[in-house]
Design a protein that fits this description.
With 592 residues, this protein is of the alpha/beta class. Helices cover 56% and strands 11% of the residues. It has 22 helices and 14 strands. It has helices at 3-22, 52-55, 59-73, 93-102, 129-147, 163-175, 181-184, 188-212, 217-223, 225-238, 242-266, 276-292, 327-341, 357-370, 403-420, 429-449, 461-464, 472-492, 506-516, 518-528, 531-551, 560-583, and strands at residues 33-35, 44-47, 77-83, 86-91, 113-117, 151-158, 272-275, 297-298, 304-307, 315-319, 347-353, 378-383, 386-387, 457-458. A five-stranded parallel β-sheet has the order 7-6-5-11-12, sandwiched between helices. The chain has a four-stranded antiparallel β-sheet with strand order 1-2-4-3. The chain has a three-stranded antiparallel β-sheet with strand order 8-9-10. The protein is globular. The protein starts with a helix and ends in a 9-residue tail after the last helix. Mean pLDDT is 92; it is low at 391-398.
Amino acid sequence: MSSSKLNASLSSMVANAVTTLYDKVIDPSSIQFQQTRKEFDGDITLLVFPLTKWSAKGPEQTANDIGKWLTENCPLVETYNVVKGFLNLLIKTDFYIQNTLVSPPSIIPQGRNLMVEYSSPNTNKPLHLGHIRNNLLGYAMAQILEAAGNVVTKVNLVNDRGIHICKSMLAWKKYGKGETPITSKIKGDHLVGKYYVLFDKKFKEEVSALIEKGFTKEEAEKQAPLMLEVQEMLRKWEMNDEATVSLWKQMNGWVYEGFKVTYELLGVSFDKIYFESDTYLLGKTIVTEGLEKGIFFRKENGSIAIDLSNEGLDEKIVLRSDGTSVYITQDLGTAQQRFEEYKQLQKLIYVVGNEQDYHFKVLKAIFGRLGRPWADELFHLSYGMVDLPSGKMKSREGTVVDADDLIREITEEAEMATKALGKLDNYENQEAKSLYHDIAMGALKYFILRVDPKKKMLFNPAESIDLNGNTGPFIQYTHARICSVCKKVEQIIPLGTELGHYLPDKIEKELLKLIYEYPETVLKAASDLSPAIVANYAYELARSYNHFYHDHVVANADEPLVTKFRYELSKSVASLLGQSLRLLGIVAPQKM
């Protein structure tokens, strides 16, 4: 029985109480519950104020009437207490035991067909800290949605064409002297990113020189030789110029090899990868369709646009005057292609930073105008940026926190922290290295995912690795500790020992309640599209278990009944910690 079913059962009983006590018939769905506040005794709290219109009594008297009736007539309720207009109900401990340790709670499948797009890198630079939040959020969200009983397809759209890609290509062509990842011993995506930064440096030098000659900044940026050259390169690419396309394939190949290494380090994957170079032409076809239907219009300069003022938006260019496409063009093509390929697709979720909020409102509005039946099923999972102590990142200026460097730094932090505690004295070198990486990724992923996606965040590597704080390593260590405890118990209790009648204390009951809440936690995280809900649940479960472990002996051969109960309790906590961590893309070690 899930929490929602518990609420439904109690609602039905409260409705019966109102009918019996006050001769009034009320709708059970109108009855409101909330979790009992920690400073009061109880498991679930009934809001009594709305019921006083039926009882014609004050809230405290009404609460006492209903509490007494439930205690006498409802098999779920042990006792109650009243605090002002709130009725705190204590649910019988046996209910939690039966619905956790005896019959583990299950998730009611949501049963939808969903697609989650995340990562979406540009092939002109390596992945950085912002991409890390995107990848971790997208992967975890896909895992959670699948755990909630949905069919989920994980996709990546690689932005492999456009003016920004040509900037790296042109800089390498002009200044690279044939440099390759092999000759330079630089990872492919890093090498291409180096030339993206170099383009910006050279471009700014040209702009400054033109401004000194009397040009305005805007004129200088348009007339700078490098800008004219890169625009010509983009036109050649779209005209399928052999030399330009050959250079594009070569440099993109370097980048893909680099991305592959970073994705493996992060532990994220995709079911399908789309490329903008394959979808922008379909986008152009959609623009032609919209132009013929009068949805789009051609401007005086030859560009094609749409007026979305009726939707509270502005005019949006969908094709440049020289015929080249813009971001929205390829997004039109990609979205349509996905709904054509996946006939059962019910919702397409884009994991993209909040700086693109307007872009996705425009995309949705355009498909609405075009009459696509799935236009309302495009959803932008907007997330806040990751800030640094030194300020915001700027790719063009090379002031980014590189993903590979960050992973390496956190892994080193994990190694130092673990060695300082003497945790891996009996590990082989390779086994220890693997664990350092798992701990580092647990630190990185949990620190990022514990924050609600809509909020911006400040990432602190040193804080993320703390084994005693609200961190991934703390949860990982708790999981490993429980696995060790369970192995000890399995050596002292006879096989087949049954779970007899045992009355848990308050701390043990709190753990049972947390175990019981797992399915509703996953469903809420799926509905709210927030891995933070699972992350914070995992921390609360680990924290509560450590509180229990501090005050209770688990492996006690002299008390088999107690040992069996605490073993089953521990095993269930370990299982849910493992499941929660895996939903976040985090490894749950058996030992640390």
